[in-house]
What we know:
The protein has 318 residues and is α+β, with helices and mostly antiparallel strands. Helix content is 62%, strand content 8%. The protein contains nine helices and four strands; from the N terminus they run ααβαββαβααααα. The protein has helices at residues 19-39, 46-49, 64-72, 103-118, 132-160, 163-187, 193-223, 229-261, 267-294, and strands at residues 51-57, 80-83, 89-94, 123-130. The chain has a four-stranded antiparallel sheet with strand order 2-3-1-4. Helix 6 packs antiparallel against helix 9 and helix 7 runs antiparallel to helix 8. The radius of gyration is 25 Å and the shape is elongated.
Amino acid sequence: MRLIKLVPDNTNIRFVAVRKIAFTVTLILSILAVGLVFVRGLNFGVDFMGGVAIEEKFATPPAIDRVRATIERLGVGEPAIQQFGDPTLVSIRLPVPEGDAGATDRLVERVKTALSTEFPGATFSNYSTVSGKVSDELVTNGVLAVLLAIVGIAIFSWFRYEWQFGVSTAVAIIHDVLMTLGFFALTQMPFDLTIVAAVLTIIGYSINDKMVIDDRIRENMRKYRKMGMRELIDLSVNETLPRTVMTSLTILLALTALIVFGGHVLRGFTAAMILGVIVGTYSSIYVSSSLLISLGLQPGAPVGEGTVKEPVPQKGAR
């Protein structure tokens, strides 16, 4: 039985040749992502904003203005209402009510009763509540977790290889995170702790893919000490391309099944992961590896332990 090969043997794609185009596209997309975050903002979920988040399932897609008017008549505060990918599923966010521990339960019951009366067939899904103090702590901890992950991975790459690898790793990861934030700013999908977990998972996937390529670059720098950096990086990326394509494809297949059958609760997490796998694969192949040339990594440089430094002709290492 013959094995299926998604990438033919002896594939020789010149990735470095298009690095300037890749850098330009990456820069433009990163600027657009930052602009979207500042202009449109992120639709922070109850985890970060604080309040009571209620999910209601309607028999048919409801008119949002009618839902809003029904809740405003209760006098429970200004509601923030959003439809999910399923138009019959609506998220309603309200301020945390003052009073005893049962105040939130009574608020939810009032909303449920009002909606089921106004919209026959409407059913309650679930609700969650977070205080303002807790939400502030979650914002701080979430941002800190992402920043520490980026800095820690960059430092590891620096000491594991050379400083150029650390910088290229940080650039690739920041690009992947910005793309995720820009996507959520554009779509206005709820951004909560689940998405923070997705971002950290994306960082882990991206660095795993990049480390495989970096290890192959280091091995080839020892093996082909007189080869120019352009040719060496193209060789390394092409040698690891079957593994990269197969890994990304299998993960995407699993995520596609999850977004189709996983329900709305996991939709944001799965969407973030799908985007992260795509942009992470792109940044590992086209951005971070080629960036090593722009950062001045030279053939024959001491890469990791056990490498002997020798003078080598510098062909194409500009």
